[in-house]
Amino acid sequence: MGSADSKLNFRKAVIQLTTKTQPVEATDDAFWDQFWADTATSVQDVFALVPAAEIRAVREESPSNLATLCYKAVEKLVQGAESGCHTEKERQIVLNCCRLLTRILPYIFEDPDWRGFFWSTVPGAGRGGGDEDDENARPLAESLLLAVTDLLFCPDFTVQSHRRNTVDTAEDIHSIDSCEYIWEAGVGFAHSPQPNYIHDLNRTELLKLLLTCFSEAMYLPPSSDSSNTNPWVQFFCSTENRHALPLFTSLLNIVCAYDPVGYGIPYNHLLFSDYREPLVEEAAQVLIVTLDYDSSTSSSPTVDGTTTGTAMDDVDPPGPDNLFVNYLSRIHREEDFQFILKGVARLLSNPLVQTYLPNSAKKIQFHQELLVLFWKLCDFNKKFLFFVLKSSDVLDILVPILYFLNDARADQSRVGLMHIGVFILLLLSGERNFGVRLNKPYSVRVPMDIPVFTGTHADLLIIVFHKIITSGHQRLQPLFDCLLTIVVNVSPYLKSLSMVAANKLLHLLEAFSTTWFLFSAIQNHHLVFFLLEVFNNIIQYQFDGNSNLVYAVIRKRNVFHQLANLPTDSQSIQKALQRKKKTPEPISRTNSQDGVSMEGSRPAAPAEPGTLKTSLVATPGIDKLTEKSQVSEDGTMRSLEPEASQLSPEGNPPAALSDGEPWSGEASHSRRDRRRLSSASSSGQWTPTPDWVMSWKSKLPLQTIMRLLQVLVPQVEKICIDKGLTDESEILKFLQHGTLVGLLPVPHPILIRKYQANSGTAMWFRTYMWGVIYLRNVDPPIWYDTDVKLFEIQRV
C-alpha cells in the first residue's frame, strides 16, 4: 500500500474514533487494527493526523474509547516484546503503537482525572497472562514500561543478533542476557557493536516514548516536597526492570562515546546523515530524567567500597532504590571515569571548535543536557568528582562552561544555562584542587567576547565573571553571590593574577562600594565582604606572586579609604539614595578599561524577540546553597555549621525572596535584630537606617589591606619622587621583591563555602531539566500546547 493510502486509512480510523458516540468493544480487532496494522506512518505523520483537539474531544466525550485505544496499543507492544518482533509486520505494528502512545500520553497527563488511568489494572491482563485473579494484574503503566525495556534489547530490531542462522533458531527474547547486548563500548562493556542505523532509529522511537511516559512530572506544579517521586521513573529504575543495568550502561556509553566529528573525517556531516545524533540526544534526556533524585533527603548514595574487578562497587551500599542513581554512584574504575570525562569534555567543547574551525564538525545542541549529566555525576559520585579534579582535565570542562556563560550572559532565554554553569563551578570550587588547577596558563584561543589577556585559567574565570556582572542580563543579579563565592573559594590558591584580572576585581569593588548601591538593598553589602575576603586571602596566602594585584590595590587605595569612612548618618543615606534615582544603571560600566576584545569573537547577543523560554523556580540563597568549612594547616576541611540551626528562623519565605542571612566576616544577627536595625516603612518597603549601616560597617575586614597600604604606599611614593617615575614597570619590580613578612596581621583561617545538596536545588534542577526537554523536542512537538504545570512557557 502506498504511503498516501496508508495515511488516508489511518486518518479515516481517527475520524471514526472521534465521531463514535458508543463504546467500541476491545475485541473488535477489525476496528482497532486500523490504527497500527496496515499503516506505515512516521511519527511526524501521527502528530499531523491526530490533532490535539480530537484527542481532547475523545477524552471528554467517549472516555471508554480512549481507554481502550491506550490499552490495545500497550497490548500490541507487550505482544511484540513477547514474540521478539521477528517479522517486518510485527516491527511496524510496534513502531506505530509507539508513535500513537507518544502522541496521546501528554493529553492523559494534563487531565487530573485521567492521571491514575495507567496505574489502574486492566481486567484479564494478569502478570501471568490468562484470566487469573485480578490482584495479580499489572497496572498498564508497568506493562508498558516492561514491554519497552524488552524491546530495547530485541535482536534484529534494536540490537545486533548474535545468531547467524535462520529465523527458526532466533533468540528467545526471554532467555537472552541483555548485558551481552549493551549498545556501545565504555563503562562495563568492551565491545563496540557495528553501527546499524535502523537499530538507532528504532531505539530513538522507543526512548521518545519512554521520555513521554516520564513526562507526567511536567503536569504537576513545582512543590517544595521533593519526596513526590515520579511513579514511572520509580518503577522503571527498580529491580522490576530486569534490563536496568544494561540499559543504564547503554545510555551512558552511547552519550559518552559519541563523536560528532564522525570517524575522524572533518566535514563529513555535510555528506552523510547522522543517525546517531538523535539517539544520543534522546539517550541523554532519558538518562538525566531517570537521575532526577533529591540527594539531600537520603543518605548520600556515594560509597567508598574497595575497588573490585567489576564496573560497579560490589560493596552494596544501602543506596537509593533508584537503580540508575545507585549504579551511577558506584562507578569507580579509573578507565571508566576517564571515558566519561573525555566524552563529556569532547561534546561540551564541540560548539567552541565551531568557532575556530567552522563546519569542521556537526554542531551539537544538547550541551544543557550534558551539563545536567555532569552535575549529577559530580553530585552523586564523589570519587568521580575527585578524579575530575585530580588532573588538569577539569579545565576541559571549565573552558566550555566559561564560554557558554560568556556567550549567554545577555540572553534572558538562557538564564537557566547560566545557572547550571555557575552551580557546577560552585560545586568544583569547594575543593582545594580546583583552585590549584586554575594556575595553569591559558593558551587555548577560543574566540570570546572578552578583553585580550595573557595569563592563567584563573584570569579567564575572573574576566568572564566580571563581564557577566557588568554586562549580563539583569535577571542574573541573584547569581552575583554565587559568582563571588566561587572567586573567594579559589582565591587562597591563586599564585599570580594578570594585571587585566586584578583591575577587573578592583573595578567590581569600586562598583559595589558606591554608597547608593550599598544602601539600596539589604544584602548588597555582602558583595563587598566577598571581594575584601578575596583580597585578604591573596595578600595573606599568595603575596609573593601577586604584585599586579597589590599594585592595583595601591592605585585604587581611595576605594578602601572611602569604605573605612563610609557615612552612617541619616542625611548621607538619604542623599545616596536620591543619587540612585538619577542613575538606575545597576553597576557602573564605565572606566573598566575593557580594551580590545579577542579577534573573531562576536558580542553576546540578547534573545531574539519571540524566542520561547520556560520559567524557573527561584534558587535558594547562597546561605542555603553552601556550608562553611575551615581549611586547617594540613589542608583538611572542618565543617563550621553546627550553629546554622539557630540562625535560620522558622517559616522562611522562599529562599530567593528571603534576604539571605548575612554571612561572611560579619556575624549573623537574628532576623529580629535586623528588623530593628533597618526600619520597614509603612509601604512594607525596607529602608536603611544608621544602626543598620553601623552593624555591618564595623565588621568590614579592612585591617590587612590598611596595614599593607600603610607600609607600601610611602615606599612607592618615595620611589616615584626619587626616580621621577611614572613608569609602572619599576614599581611592579619593587613590589615583586618586597615582603610584608611580620608586618601584616596574623593570617585568618581560610574559609571555603562548599555546595550542599538541598531540596530547593533539587526542585530547580527538575524544572530546568524538563523546561530544556520541552523546548528541545520540536520535531515532533510532543508537549507543545498541552497544559503543562511545572513551568510557564513564555515568549521573549
Automatic annotation (TrEMBL):
Pfam family, one: Hid1
Organism: Cyanoderma ruficeps
Lineage, highest ranks first: Eukaryota, Metazoa, Chordata, Craniata, Vertebrata
Region (Disordered): 578-687
GO cellular component: Golgi medial cisterna; Golgi trans cisterna; membrane
Listed name of the protein: HID1 domain containing
PANTHER family: PROTEIN HID1 (PTHR21575)
Record InterPro entries: Hid-1/Ecm30
Highest taxon of the lineage: Eukaryota
